[in-house]
Amino acid sequence: MTDYLLILLSTALVNNVVLVKFLGLCPFMGVSNKLDSAVGMGLATTFVLTLAAVASWLLEHFVLQPLHVEFLRILTFILVIAAVVQFTEMVVRKFSPALYQVLGIFLPLITTNCAVLGVALLNIQEDHGFLDSMLYGFGSALGFTLVMVIFAGLRARLALAQVPAAFAGAPIGFVVAGLLSLAFMGFAGLTTH
Amino acid sequence: MSDGPREILNEGLWRNNTALVQLLGLCPLLAVSGTVINALGLGLATTLVMAGSNVTVSLVRNLVRPELRIPTFVLVIACFVTAVELLMKAFVYDLYLVLGIFIPLIVTNCVIIARAEAFAAKNNVGRSLLDGLAMGVGFSLVLVVLGGLREILGHGTLLAQADLMFGPAAHGLTLTLIPEYRGFLLAILPPGAFLGLGLLIALKNVIDRRHAARRALRGAVSPAGPAVETAKP
Fold first, then answer.
1. Angstroms from A67 CA to nearest CA on chain B
2. Which helix (H) or strand (E) holds B176?
3. pLDDT (tens digit, 0 to 9) for every residue of chain B, 233 residues total?
4. Exposed, middle or buried: residue A163 (CB in 10 Å: 0-12, 13-18, 19+)?
5. I need a labelling partner for A79 at 20 to 30 A (CA). Which of A4, A165, B184, B214 fits?
6. Are B170 and B163 in contact (CB under 8 A)?
7. By the CB < 8 Å criterion, does B114 face chain A?
8. For B92-112, b where at least 16 C-beta lie within 10 A, e where not — what string?
């Protein structure tokens, strides 16, 4: 049990996907203007990332490896992710139109979120078991959501701050992200792995 | 959309630079810019994929039904990435190991699909190839500059581990700029990447503003200024 808790904590905080592993930066910079859109993106990504981690693990171990066609991994994984996104969109639209209103516009964007493909590939690279893969996916997604929400809050404050003209907009965003990343380095310490 | 080749180059290398202006493809940009050689390796791989996918998309642009456009583009890109991955595994295996997961992740580099959708799907093969190369080179340039910045600050060297890319003969290429340097770890770690890119974008803003101010000044001094400016761009 503690093992599983440790996986969750280490993927969400210590090895945060966005700030430490540099995955999923496009939505991190692009969709963090408003707090509620950041929450929506986080929820949608959590769902897709966990499902995609499970689906890609199953495919790798039951299709690609028995057939010895590992070189098709990129191609199959990206297809699986696109299918999972489509599936999520259909399910959400059918069962909860209200939720669809919130998440709908973010779903297509998730296909090109490199955190999803990245976590699926890391699971294979590091030879995780089935349950570990699922938790790894879920923990990473939690970390992604956490950082998205924190950053959206910071940007709301930044919008009111007086910033030197050259830094207005994206540059100050990166500087703030750097400081946030520095804060998250506190979990691991300032060392190279 | 009917710009000349010069316009396409300018667009890709500076005015609409993927990394500095469009802010796309940030993950590989920040993740592998620890050293110049890593940056160069990934930049070349991305340029190759972008040029290939732009040409292919441009070739099939009239055959693909509009609703199947995006899946087709993604598959084309995935094929090129697989090819590049296998090539790197065969010829620069050590570099392949260092870049690791970021080679397959070229698939989800939003720049590539954005150019396929916005440019290659509407233009002929030659222009698409040029656009792919310009965008790719613009991206690689930022990658290499950021890599150089972080390497000098972090290790005090330039072009370390050049042998990963150019073979054992390139050992001598490594420049030690600051001897006896103890290293500045922050520049190598993730925060350094964020801060570095923020500074680079700010620098581009300053240069653009200076440029605009100078042009406005010239226009104000001689009334014919702007007209001459547009006559020979």
1. 18
2. strand B175-176
3. 456 788 888 887 888 887 777 777 788 888 888 888 889 999 999 999 999 999 999 999 888 888 788 888 888 999 999 999 999 999 888 888 888 888 888 888 888 888 888 888 888 899 999 999 999 999 999 999 998 888 888 877 777 777 777 766 666 667 777 777 677 777 788 888 889 888 988 998 898 889 888 888 887 765 444 444 443 33
4. middle
5. A4
6. yes
7. no
8. beebbebbebbbbbbbbbbbb
Q: Choose among B26, B101, B186: nearest Cβ to A125.
A: B101
Which chain B residues touch A178 with a CB distance below 8 Å? 190-195, 198
What 8-state DSSP symbol labels residue B17?
-
The terminus-to-terminus CA distance of chain A in angstroms comes to 26
* Cross-chain Cβ contact B209/A165 below 8 Å: yes
In sequence order, the β-bridge partners of residue B158 are B175
User: Residue A169 and residue B208: Cα distance in Å, rounded?
Assistant: 15
Residue B24 Cα, gap to closest chain A Cα (Å): 6
Cβ separation B79–A82 shorter than 8 A: no
Assign 3-state DSSP to chain A and report helix, strand, coil percentages, each to 5.
Answer: 80, 0, 20
Query: Cβ separation of B191 and A125 shorter than 8 Å?
Result: no
Q: Which amino acid is at A132?
A: D
Q: How many CA atoms lie within 13 A of B108 on its CB side?
A: 32
Distance CA B143, CA B148 (A): 9
With H, G, I as helix, E, B as strand and everything else as coil, classify residue B68.
Answer: helix
Give the C-alpha separation, B124 to B140, whole Å.
Answer: 24
Interacting residues of A38 by C-beta distance below 8 A, sequence separation 6+: A31, A32, A148, A149, A151, A152
Nearest to B188 by CA among A26, A140, A143, A181: A181
CA angle A49, A51, A55 (to 5 degrees): 115
List, for residues A80-134, the tens digit of each pLDDT value.
Answer: 988 888 888 888 888 878 778 777 677 777 887 888 999 999 999 888 889 999 9
Distance from CA of B197 to the nearest CA of A (A): 7
Which of B82, B108, B194 comes nearest A71 by C-beta? Answer: B82
